[in-house]
């Protein structure tokens, strides 16, 4: 009970702080619609080719994770509005199933503004075991830094990003209609391509230790 009260207090304090920041964020009305009506998105729009912005989220045990925790590997970020809705559920299950056939060096994460308790309950009910869900409900940093935070709702627009091991945004889709699913094939193809390039880069990196050993033997 004490832990629950402490968690609730942290959430209330953080949400108040996040709201103050949101008042100064740019607003975008041109990217996403809901039933044909424009949706106001808060935050800075990111572009393919730029460095992926950092963010803080929490897992189902309220442990803090940042973008740096996923550095050095190809990462697909699936942003959904709420796991309790049909399309978001389908999106999360689709990427979870896809992991079974993907290279081992890649990671897929789902981020929503659902509370960690709700995310954990969803994952247990739907057997989501190959990907990890994270909550943006505490600081709203992911939504603000990636231009996905829906104004006055605190929820995320639907989107998919693929980030390279060196933190470059190589793929971006912000789904234009909130109720529609993303282009899974295109996103997964981008993730696989980055994984393959990562393998090539790793194999072509000079083995410094081996070269030094050869030099010592020749002396």
TrEMBL record:
<dbReference type="Pfam" id="PF08534">
    <property type="entry name" value="Redoxin"/>
</dbReference>
<keyword id="KW-1015">Disulfide bond</keyword>
<feature type="domain" description="Thioredoxin">
    <location>
        <begin position="46"/>
        <end position="196"/>
    </location>
</feature>
<keyword id="KW-0575">Peroxidase</keyword>
<dbReference type="InterPro" id="IPR002065">
    <property type="entry name" value="TPX"/>
</dbReference>
<feature type="region of interest" description="Disordered">
    <location>
        <begin position="200"/>
        <end position="219"/>
    </location>
</feature>
<dbReference type="InterPro" id="IPR036249">
    <property type="entry name" value="Thioredoxin-like_sf"/>
</dbReference>
<dbReference type="GO" id="GO:0008379">
    <property type="term" value="F:thioredoxin peroxidase activity"/>
</dbReference>
<dbReference type="InterPro" id="IPR013740">
    <property type="entry name" value="Redoxin"/>
</dbReference>
<dbReference type="InterPro" id="IPR013766">
    <property type="entry name" value="Thioredoxin_domain"/>
</dbReference>
<keyword id="KW-0560">Oxidoreductase</keyword>
<keyword id="KW-0676">Redox-active center</keyword>
<dbReference type="InterPro" id="IPR018219">
    <property type="entry name" value="Tpx_CS"/>
</dbReference>
<keyword id="KW-0732">Signal</keyword>
<dbReference type="InterPro" id="IPR050455">
    <property type="entry name" value="Tpx_Peroxidase_subfamily"/>
</dbReference>
<feature type="signal peptide">
    <location>
        <begin position="1"/>
        <end position="18"/>
    </location>
</feature>
<keyword id="KW-0049">Antioxidant</keyword>
<protein>
    <submittedName>
        <fullName>Thiol peroxidase</fullName>
        <ecNumber>1.11.1.-</ecNumber>
    </submittedName>
</protein>
């Amino acid at each position: 009970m004490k832990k629950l009260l402490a968690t609730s207090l942290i959430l209330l304090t953080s949400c108040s702080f996040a709201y103050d920041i949101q008042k100064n964020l740019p607003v975008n009305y041109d990217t996403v619609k809901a039933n044909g009506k424009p949706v106001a998105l808060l935050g800075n729009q990111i572009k393919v080719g730029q460095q992926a912005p950092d963010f803080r989220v929490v897992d189902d045990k309220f442990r803090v994770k940042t973008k740096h925790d996923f550095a050095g590997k190809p990462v697909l970020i699936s942003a959904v509005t709420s796991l309790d809705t049909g399309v978001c559920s389908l999106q999360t299950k689709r990427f979870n199933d896809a992991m079974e056939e993907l290279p081992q060096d890649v990671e897929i994460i789902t981020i929503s503004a659902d509370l960690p308790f709700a995310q954990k309950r969803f994952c247990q009910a739907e057997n989501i075991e190959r990907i990890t869900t994270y909550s943006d409900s505490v600081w709203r940093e992911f939504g603000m830094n990636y231009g996905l935070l829906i104004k006055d709702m605190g929820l995320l627009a639907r989107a998919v990003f693929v980030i390279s091991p060196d933190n470059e945004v190589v793929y971006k889709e912000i789904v234009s209609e909130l109720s529609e699913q993303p282009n899974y094939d295109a996103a997964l193809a981008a993730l696989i391509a980055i994984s393959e390039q990562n393998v090539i880069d790793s194999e072509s990196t000079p083995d410094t230790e081996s070269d030094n050993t050869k030099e010592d033997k020749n002396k």
